[in-house]
Write a structure and sequence with these properties.
The chain has one domain: NAD(P)-binding Rossmann-like Domain (Rossmann fold, 3-Layer(aba) Sandwich), CATH 3.40.50.720. The protein is 46% helix and 14% strand. The chain is built from ten helices and seven strands. Helix 2 links the parallel strand 2 (32-37) and strand 3 (66-70). The protein is globular, with a radius of gyration of 18 Å. The model is unreliable at 266-276 (pLDDT under 50).
Length: 276
């Protein structure tokens, strides 16, 4: 497995949840981290705590070189600034984790077209913009890794989730094409399909304010996993040899291949701890 020590990793949606845990998991393996998110101290989230600066400070307390970059991926210039800031600070990026997401639930005819435009920008175009911004350097050095974070809803027709499902499926498709075109370059492109509920702060907030049924969207709460597990699975995928590429795997599939496994007792504990 490649050593992640001193690799430079850009992680989007890193303020909390899966992205934050991915940043922590990579930092524990010695990677330098560029934590990207919309929430900063100057622009706090309306309901949830945390900021990209706080994530970076936590990693620096471990002795890891890290920076927090506040950026809205729906904005082309803000996305480009992530690339510029990373290259100015570190001179390169060896890893890109495209985790940031946006959704607007509801029947297709009730979701305004501009929300579809925003979702495609955040889930499809901006991740590709980041990948192509860092890829020339990866190809020149002969190594690099991109991990896209998708969702199990990309494979289902779930009422009310057409926007999220469609954009995540589009992300998976461009990942396949990118892997095809990068064959033999030393750059791995893989996708983790998060096909279980994850007990993120955002999920808990919805469960507390709108109920578990709404937060779960019909998925099984019993099979819920902790975001730290998903973060470790992302890190495990990035530790594989560059020849291990072109994979789109669910959480249990990663575990079957030798990645971090779902603790059998954690599911019951999580289910009992939810708020109705």
């Amino acid at each position: 497995m490649p050593d992640l020590k001193d690799k430079v990793a850009v992680v989007t949606g890193a303020t909390r949840g899966i992205g934050r845990q991915a940043a922590l998991a990579l930092a524990r393996r010695g990677a330098h981290v560029v934590a990207v998110g919309r929430t900063s101290r100057d622009a706090p989230h309306a309901a949830l705590p945390g900021s990209v600066v706080e994530v970076a400070e936590a990693l620096e307390a471990w002795g890891i070189e890290a920076i927090g970059v506040q950026a809205d991926l729906s904005d082309e210039a803000a996305t480009a600034a992530i690339i510029d800031t990373t290259l100015d600070r570190f001179g390169r990026a060896d890893i890109v984790v495209n985790n940031a997401a946006y959704t607007s639930n509801g029947p297709m005819l009730e979701v305004p077209w501009h929300r579809w435009q925003r979702a495609f920008r955040v889930q499809v175009v901006a991740p590709l913009q980041l990948a192509t911004g860092f890829l020339p350097g990866m190809i020149e050095r002969g190594h690099g890794a991109i991990c896209n974070v998708s969702s199990g809803v990309s494979q289902s027709l779930t009422p009310g989730l057409s926007l999220y499902s469609t954009t995540k499926l589009a992300m998976e498709r461009w990942s396949d094409y990118l892997d095809l075109e990068l064959s033999g370059s030393g750059v791995a492109v893989n996708t983790l399909r998060v096909d279980r509920l994850v007990a993120t702060e955002g999920w808990q907030h919805i469960a507390d304010t709108q109920g578990v049924e709404v937060a779960s969207g019909g998925a099984s709460v019993i099979e819920m996993v902790e975001p730290s597990l998903v973060g470790d699975q992302i890190a495990w995928m990035l530790e594989q040899a560059s020849s291990w590429t072109g994979n789109t795997l669910g959480i249990d599939e990663v575990a079957t291949l030798g990645g971090p496994a779902v603790p059998p007792t954690s599911n019951e504990k999580t289910a009992k701890g939810t708020t109705s």
